Amino acid sequence: MxxxxxxxxxxxxxxxxxxxxxxxxxxxxxxxxxxTLRSILARMMDYYNYERRGIQIIEIDDCYQxxxxxxxxxxxxxxxxxxxxxxxxxxxxxxxxxxxxxxxITRSGIEEIRGVNCDxxxxxxxxxxxxxxxxxxxxPGKPILYKTTQEFLRCxxxxxxxxxxxxxxxxxxxxxREE
Length: 179
Description:
Layout: H1 3-17, E1 21-22, H2 23-30, H3 34-50, E2 55-60, E3 63-68, H4 73-76, H5 90-102, E4 105-106, H6 107-114, H7 119-127, E5 131-136, E6 144-148, H8 150-155
Helix pairs in contact: 5-7
């Protein structure tokens, strides 16, 4: 196959799937090696961005997906049914941040950091597909471990967890200390 045909197949497969496809699955479908495929995908991504097309290919954690350009949101929302979902509560945002930076983590681990019960926040995050169960801790009671999902990465505009902002230790040097 020549490059143009491979690009055409990639476009068709990504469009038809409607969701992100892992590089391994794309390589299997196209029967080409991952390095070549990554190179082709990078070129396609550059093309869509350079030409300022209405769609783009995004990469999220080694998965690729077609999506519309964020700057066209105000026009696209006029034809798409508005979602009834509200934004995340402060508790849910705190909880998903704790999970993102400490995954995999148990409910009790989250509650230890937050200092309050997190049942409602975890339930909300599970319903939205932002977190998922990732096994059980080998400890008494075998508590469930939670981790973030690709949907979390997509919603927060991250390619991978490596793109999370770095957390710096709190500077307490300005606090007067009685000695």
